[in-house]
Amino acid sequence: MEEGNLAPMSDLSSSTITIEAPLAEVTKALFAIDLYPSWSSAIKSSESVATDDQGRITKAKLTIDAGMMKDRVILDYDWSQAPSKLTFSLDDADLLTGMDGAYLISAIDEDSTQVTYELTVSLSMPIPAMMRQKAEKTTIDLALTQLKASLEA
Q: Is-contact 139 66, C-beta < 8 A?
């Protein structure tokens, strides 16, 4: 495989969780990127840098502290598949060289929603793939668990 910022799809980490909340509540929480610090302990701050004509955040500056992943990042958000999918990609960071992810959201029934969080991260320093994937998985699982807890409270 050639070196570069793009990880092959097999390197993608993901988890799925069922949240006992209606689809509208789940998408409201996930789409309010500036409010992520209110439910995610790994996101210390989130600031809108740019929005689209519908007021949705298209670029945000986040301070992340997720164990071994600590960084200040600027992420670009793609709303083209919303509300069923919100994707993001790295625009700039202090340490990370790549960060691509997506939230896939679907209603199970009127009171339950399934959320899948996909994430792949590239670092400027060499880290074994197993360690990177473990950190991604930990980050994903924590985010989903905290999102679920905040919505089911």
A: yes
Calculate the alpha carbon distances from 97 to 42, 80, 81, 151 in Å: 19, 24, 25, 32
Q: Name the helix (H) or strand (E) containing 139.
A: helix 129-152
For 2-13, what is each residue's pLDDT tens digit? Answer: 344 444 444 789
Structure tokens at 39: 């439910």
CATH of the domain at 66: 3.30.530.20
Spatial neighbors of 152 by CB under 8 A, at least 6 apart, are 19, 20, 21
Amino acid at 16: T
Give residue 57's identity as a one-letter amino acid code: I
Neighbouring CB atoms inside 10 A of 109's CB total: 8
Beta-carbon count within 10 A of 152 CB: 10
The pTM of the whole model exceeds 0.85: yes
The residue segments making up the domain with residue 140 are 12-152
